[in-house]
Amino acid sequence: MSIHKMIALHPDVGEDFNETLATAARHAMFCAEMCTSCGDACVAEAMDMAQCIRSCLDCADVCAATGRLAIRRTGQNIETLRLMLESCARVCELCAEECARHEHEHCRLCAEMCRECAADCRRAIPTVQ
Question: Gene3D superfamilies recorded for this chain (predicted)?
Answer without folding.
Answer: 1.20.1270.360
